[in-house]
Design brief:
- The chain is built from three helices and no strands.
- The chain has 83 residues and is mainly alpha-helical.
- 82% of the residues lie in helices and 0% in strands.
- The longest helix is centred in the middle third of the chain and has 34 residues, at 12-45.
């Protein structure tokens, strides 16, 4: 994004492409979050045997997804302003 601000006006088509990409990624995040939540619930009902770190992996995946969504929110705000 920095190179867009380095020149004069930002490339409108590029900004709009990023906005479309953001919508796609946002929908993917929702699907991934549902899948993670389902797996967390399954692991509570039937904990995996022999894998001690499994109980920590899914919550970490959940946290990583939250960070990705926050980054996308910043991208959404910036591209909306540019558009």
């Amino acid at each position: 994004m920095a190179e867009m601000f380095d020149g004069s006006d930002p490339d409108v088509e590029r900004v709009r492409r990023w906005r479309r990409d953001w919508r796609t990624l946002s929908a993917d995040c929702e699907r991934i979050r549902r899948n993670i939540d389902t797996e967390i619930e399954k692991s509570r009902l039937r904990p995996p045997r022999g894998i001690e770190s499994a109980e920590f992996a899914l919550p970490r995946a959940h946290d990583s997804l939250t960070v990705a969504e926050r980054v996308m929110d910043h991208l959404r705000f910036m591209t909306r302003t540019l558009d």
